[in-house]
Design brief:
globular, alpha/beta, 5-stranded parallel beta sheet
C-alpha cells in the first residue's frame, strides 16, 4: 500500500515511512492511494473475531511493509483485557470496546474509554507506541515526538510512549485549559523521556506550533521530529477498527446498517468512521457533534469552513473539543473535492493564511450528501441536562463530551432510518471531568481505585509562551543536554 499527500507531493511512501514522518513534506496529510474495499465474505468472516484479530485483519490492508506475523504480534500485544480493563460494571473487558446499551438494540454507547488514561485516544495510541518501538528497533533509529493536546491525546501518548527506548516526547497543552484530572495524568509522569510544556494560549496555538515545526524540513530532519497527533495516519487507521467492531456488536447480520454519533473537535475520530464507510461498512449516518466551538457543524450546515482565531475559541466544559482548526478535516475535503490535491492546496493556502472557504458557492458542497454526514451542536446547559437525563433514565453516568454526542444524537435521530441502531462513541470516563459531573448530578463520579489521589501527585511541567522558536530551543536544549 502506497500513500499520497492531500496536497500532491510527488513521493509515494509506504506505511513505516509515514508512521515516523507525520505531515507530508508539502504540509499535507497522508492518505492511502485508494481505500481497500471490504467484501461481503470478509464481513462474514470478521464478525466473530476478537478485537486483536479484527485489528490485524483491517490494518493488514493498510500496513503492507511489516511482515504479517510481526503485525499480528503487535496487535495481540496491544489489544488485551489487561490494558483495556476499565469497563463499565457488567460489561465484558474481553470485548475491548463493548456496547453499553441504553435502549437494548436501539441506542447505546460504544465504550472506547477502557484504556489506561480513560479516554478513546488509548485505542490508537497504545498501538502507535508499539508500532514506533518495532519500527525504530528494526531501523536502529530514534525519534522525538512533538505533539499538541486539548486534553486526552497528551496523556494517551505519554502513557503509550513512557519508557519506550528510542522515543522522547515533547507534549504541548493549553495552560490552565484542561481539567485537573487531565493535567494530573500528564504532568505527574516522571519518566525521563517525557516533557510537558503548557502553552499560554489555546489548543490551536499549540497545534500551530506543531505544524510549524513539522514544516521546518531542516529542523525536523536534524532532530528527528515525529508526530502522534491525529495528523499521523496510523492514529486514524487504528480508529477504523472500532467502527467495524461496533457494527458487529449492534447488528445480527451484514444486511443491516448502523449509525454512529461522534463528538468531534479535530475531526480525527469521525474521519476514521468516514473511511470505514468508504471501505464498505454499512453505515447509514455519521452524526457529527460539536460543542460551542462549532466550526465543523457550521460547515456541514452551510458548506462554509471558517476556522476561528484562538481569541474566538471558547473555553468549555468539554475541553477536548475546544478546537477551531480541525486538522483532519483536510482528509475529508480531499475526498469531497474528488481527491484533487491542487484544489486542496488552494483551499488550505487560504486557511493557513487565516482565511475561509465556501464549497457551497463553488457547488462542491452538494457532493457532501454522498457521505452520509449530519451534524449538530451542544452547549454547557445542554451537557448538564443530558448528563442528568441519561443518569435519571438509564442509571448511567457519562462524561461531558459523550453528553455532547448523546444530545446531538437525540436531535438528529430523525435522520436515522427506522430500525437502524444508533451508537454514540463514548470519548472518556466521567471522572476526567468531575467538576461538571458534580454540577450536573451533585455527586462525585466513580474513579478506578488505582487513580485515587492522582491530582495530589507532584507535577512536572514547563509553562511557555506560544512561540515557535522558543519551543525549538527547548527541544534542542533537552536533546543535547
Amino acid at each position: 500500500m502506497k500513500y499520497l499527500s492531500t496536497r500532491g507531493h510527488a513521493a509515494r511512501p509506504e506505511f513505516c515511512d509515514i508512521l515516523l514522518g507525520g505531515l507530508a513534506p508539502d504540509g499535507g496529510l497522508y492518505l492511502p492511494e485508494t481505500y481497500p474495499q471490504v467484501t461481503r465474505a470478509e464481513l462474514d468472516a470478521w464478525r466473530g473475531l476478537s478485537y486483536a484479530d479484527l485489528a490485524f485483519a483491517i490494518l493488514s490492508k493498510y500496513i503492507t511493509d511489516i511482515p504479517a506475523a510481526d503485525l499480528k504480534a503487535i496487535c495481540d500485544k496491544t489489544y488485551t483485557a489487561d490494558v483495556y480493563r476499565f469497563v463499565r460494571p457488567g460489561d465484558n473487558a474481553a470485548d475491548i470496546t463493548p456496547v453499553h446499551w441504553l435502549e437494548a438494540g436501539r441506542f447505546g454507547l460504544l465504550e472506547l474509554s477502557n484504556g489506561p488514561t480513560l479516554a478513546f485516544k488509548d485505542m490508537a495510541m497504545q498501538l502507535l507506541g508499539n508500532l514506533f518501538e518495532y519500527v525504530l528497533d528494526k531501523r536502529g533509529e530514534t525519534i522525538n515526538i512533538l505533539g499538541a493536546t486539548s486534553g486526552d491525546t497528551g496523556s494517551a501518548a505519554e502513557y503509550a510512549m513512557r519508557g519506550k527506548h528510542g522515543v522522547t516526547v515533547f507534549m504541548l497543552s493549553p495552560h490552565g485549559k484542561m481539567s485537573p484530572f487531565q493535567r494530573a495524568q500528564m504532568y505527574s509522569l516522571q519518566d525521563a523521556n517525557i516533557y510537558n510544556i503548557a502553552v499560554t494560549g489555546m489548543f490551536d496555538d499549540a497545534q500551530d506550533i506543531v505544524k510549524a515545526v513539522s514544516n521546518d524540513a531542516a529542523f525536523k530532519a536534524k532532530y528527528k521530529i515525529g508526530a502522534v497527533n491525529s495528523i499521523n495516519w496510523a492514529r486514524v487507521a487504528a480508529q477504523i477498527v472500532y467502527y467495524f467492531k461496533g457494527y458487529f456488536a449492534a447488528t445480527k447480520s451484514n444486511d443491516e446498517q448502523v449509525a454512529f454519533c461522534v463528538p468531534s473537535g479535530n475531526f480525527g475520530n469521525i474521519c476514521a468512521g468516514h473511511i470505514a464507510r468508504q471501505m464498505g461498512l454499512p453505515v447509514s449516518r455519521l452524526i457529527l457533534a460539536t460543542n460551542e466551538n462549532d466550526v465543523l457543524d457550521e460547515f456541514f450546515q452551510t458548506g462554509v469552513y471558517r476556522p476561528r482565531k484562538a481569541a474566538e475559541t471558547q473555553v468549555t466544559s468539554s475541553p477536548s473539543m475546544d478546537i477551531s482548526k480541525a486538522s483532519n478535516f483536510e482528509r475529508f475535503v480531499f475526498d469531497l473535492v474528488g481527491r484533487n490535491p491542487q484544489r486542496v492546496a488552494e483551499l488550505w493556502k487560504s486557511v493557513d493564511a487565516g482565511g475561509t472557504f465556501d464549497l457551497a458557492a463553488s457547488g462542491e458542497f452538494a457532493d457532501s450528501r454522498n457521505y452520509a454526514f449530519v451534524s449538530g451542536r451542544s452547549t454547557h446547559a445542554d451537557r448538564l441536562a443530558t448528563i442528568r437525563q441519561v443518569f435519571e433514565t438509564y442509571g448511567t453516568v457519562i462524561d461531558t463530551h459523550t453528553a455532547d454526542g448523546v444530545k446531538v444524537a437525540w436531535d438528529c435521530a430523525d435522520s436515522v432510518p427506522a430500525g437502524v441502531p444508533l451508537l454514540v462513541l463514548e470519548t472518556a470516563l466521567p471522572v476526567k471531568f468531575a467538576e461538571t459531573i458534580r454540577e450536573a448530578l451533585g455527586r462525585e463520579p466513580e474513579r478506578p481505585a488505582e487513580l485515587d489521589g492522582i491530582e495530589a501527585l507532584p507535577q512536572r511541567v514547563e509553562v511557555m509562551a506560544p512561540d515557535v522558536d522558543a519551543i525549538k530551543r527547548f527541544i534542542v536544549q533537552h536533546l543535547e543536554a
